[in-house]
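Dear Dr. H.,

I hope your travels went smoothly. While you were away I took the liberty of generating a structure for the chain from your last submission, since the lab meeting agenda had it listed for discussion. I wanted you to have the full record in hand beforehand rather than looking at slides cold. The sequence, exactly as received, is reproduced here:
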Amino acid sequence: MEKINDIIESIANEKGLDSTEVKERVITAFLRTAKTLFGEEYEYKAEIDDDTKNIKLFQTLIVVADNDENAKFEKQYIALSKAKKIDPHIEIGDEVNYDIDIENLGRTASMILSKELNYHIQALLRDKLYDQYNSKVGALVASTVTSINQEDKTTYFDVDDLKGYMPLKNKIKSNSPELSDNFKVGDVVKAVIKRVHISSQGINIELSRTSPKFLEALLKSEVPELKDGKIIIQASARIPGQRAKIAISSISPSIDPVGAVVGAKGVRINAVSKELCNENIDIFEYSATPEIFVTRAMAPAIITSVKIQDKKATVYVNPSQKSKAIGKSGINVRLAAMLTGYEIELKETEEKQTSNQEALKELESLFKGI
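The corresponding predicted structure, in token form, is as follows:
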């Protein structure tokens, strides 16, 4: 056999793999071959000889006392008296190693070894590819539609050299059917990687256009300040195809985060909304003060006051503002709850109506210095 180190280096260079990882898989392949040839019940050891650069494969037995119960399990242990005949200096707990030369075991052994080597190298390639794409979960990709399952409406894509799929639940369904996601073969579709998993068919990538991460990824692609980290997305929530809310902040007082994300004449936010089937997007500046955060999240409703207790926010509104606070089919209050993480309870108040700006100024004065 060609020197094993040369084989390892050749595989590593050809496949773009780390030689240490290839070495580990090659050793595993030899051990699996030995178990196939001689039995799973035996113990084996493999190591690469530094002098010859070839692999050495052994069957190993553990030396135990003659009266040890384990001595009767001759496939894993050997009694001290028998071991002494092999090596007079051997002691209890030592290993007795029997050399195994797979090359001299014929064509069947070579075929098994070749199969094991191929399997473990392919598994290494698969694992590396999985890690590469799993690290991209939440990233924006543009993929070509290859087919559509007419039964469950799952859409399949080419994602580089891998197979991607988008279940029906991951497609945007708008109130207007003509604005909903309706793809055909050959379309190039933007989406985010939602999940990566390994099946019997290989690595599969689940894509999504309904995740809040898709909104965030689109914004980063349109807004340089988001991509550069000058503006930070603190939280986002969506009811796909209908409406979204997003809270942002700036790392510099000289940057107006809302203005930068909206863009001149709304060009940036409109581009994102168009990709989301004309989804309405509410953007506001994040506040670390929960009461202010909830108040801003409830826009466009004018909020009188907010009281926080544990994970519940009681929001007080004048009767005239209640319908705005709730939103059509409850969409506004649902999104505010999703965004802030608070359970929101609306209560009417007869207090004099104030503007959101006045309410915020009052809240900010109350929490100034906190």
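Two observations you may find useful: Residues 107-134 form the longest helix (28 residues). The chain has four domains: 4-134, 140-208, 211-286, 289-370.

With kind regards,
E. W.
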